[in-house]
Every structure is written in structure tokens, then in C-alpha cells.
């Protein structure tokens, strides 16, 4: 079991960390959740669809809103607008490796320019009254780990929290976890700046390893929660691995997506999550093919109930 002082957080994941999934993870014990990364340019332009991504349900608070961009003034204005959502932190993305983000000199591109990263943090901190956090990676690749300089710049310019995805940009989501890098950052950060570890956390053992090797203040779980939102509760309860999700969890998640997106637009996101919930089951492939042909939630719900009831009984 983890030290009770260690907080567990849901990572911002494009295509996954929407409001319904954040609520579900909060229900299962996440201490804090973070939105998907949101474009500062789109927020400042007044894009309604983008701004809706900043809306928080009371069930999910405390929650942070993550923004990305490369212009310090635009980032500051976006932060001012986002702060009205009732979020507890403004989180700045400086680690996303997606090409559409990087080609605009945002996300992980900022790891190549610690000075610009520092100016962005300073402007955002000055623009809002709530704390500001920064999420980074270790660097571009194993020979270019400028994330250390970015972390220090962020702290010097007022960031209250640094989250490190302990992989390089080149490693994407499957490379080795660099615990030594995180431990080094911890030694050089002021004790007043919280340090959060992220990457490769899929079990209690993973979480314990992170704590023992890095002395971080908390852990952020991303892909380990996809298909397993109860991972937060299982780690807190000292369970070795998260259990297979129950049928009522899957149904609740689907219903919350219908509530949030509406019946017309929810089916697509629901299908994506069902791919992950069904992983490892004998009839998963057949189930996924069936789900791909269904456009009605009522029909989809019946298919889900039939599949999970049968598979869970077989696994019992």
C-alpha cells in the first residue's frame, strides 16, 4: 500500500481525458484529474467547441485544465479565460510529441527553448490567481535531455508544480522510464515546488518503484487507467493489479458519454473506450466488430450487457 500522502492523478490524454472519463476516474479514487490538452489559440479566438472542453463537472473537482501554445501573451489570455471554469490549477503542456502540436512550436517543442518556456510560465503565473503547473518530458532524445533546464526555468518563474513524463520525445509512450532524471530534478527543485511522476504506471508495484526511486510527491496515471479506471482505487487499496472492470462501470461510463456528447455524437467515443474495456476477453474481436456496426445506444447497451455478462461469468 502507498503512503497516504502520495496523491494519484489522472493524466491529460487527448481522446481519453474528457469529462465523462475524468468523472469516472474521480469516482474510483483519483485525487485530481486533468483535461485533455487544449489550444490556447482556439480559446482566445473564442472557439465554442474548444472552450466547452474546459467545462468541469462538480463531480470531478478538484480538476486542472491543461493548455498548450507558444506565444506567452496568448497563453496568458487563455489562462485568464480558463480560470473562470473553477479549475484548481492551470497546467501548461510542454511535453506533447504530437506533430500537429510540435509544428506550432508548442508541446514538446518547448523543451528545445528553456528561455521561451520560462517566459510562458511567468506570463501565465502573472495572469491568474490560481496555481500554475507544467508537464514536461525528459528531453528530445537520450542525448538531449533539456527537460532539466525547462523544469528549473518553470520553477524559477513561478510554477507551483512540475510533472515529468519520464521518457524522451523519441520514446513516445513505450520507452524506458528514467527514474534517475526525475530524482535529479527533485534534488534541484525548491521544496515548495511539488513534483509529480508520470509514465509506465499500471500496477501497485509500478507505483511503489516510482516512489522509492524518485521521492516524488505524487503520481500521474495515463494509459494505465484507460480500460481500467479503477486502478486508482486498487493502488490505494494495495491490490497488485486493477481488477477487470464490472459491467455497471462500463454502462455508467457509456451513459455519462451520452449525457455529455448527446446520442448523435457519443457513439464514436464510446466505441473507442469499449475497445479498451474488452481487451483480453476471448470474444473481444467479435464484440468489436459488432460494436462498429451499431449506431443506436439502446442496441449498443444490449450488446455490451450480453458480452460482459458472458465474459465476466467465464472469468469468475
Explain this structure.
- The structure is a single chain.
- The chain has an eight-stranded parallel beta barrel, surrounded by five helices.
- Strand 1 (7-10), helix 1 (19-27) and strand 2 (32-34) form a beta-alpha-beta unit.
- It has helices at residues 19-27, 40-45, 48-52, 72-82, 99-102, 114-127, 147-156, 179-188, 204-214, 231-236, 247-261, 263-277, 284-292, 297-315, and strands at residues 7-10, 32-34, 38-39, 63-68, 89-94, 132-137, 161-165, 194-198, 218-221.
- The chain folds into two domains: 7-236, Aldolase class I (TIM Barrel, Alpha-Beta Barrel), CATH 3.20.20.70; 247-315, Non-ribosomal Peptide Synthetase Peptidyl Carrier Protein, Chain A (Orthogonal Bundle).
- The chain is globular and about 55 Å long.
- The protein is an alpha/beta fold.
- It is built from 14 helices and nine strands.
- Helix 11 packs antiparallel against helix 12 (263-277) and helix 11 (247-261) packs antiparallel against helix 14.
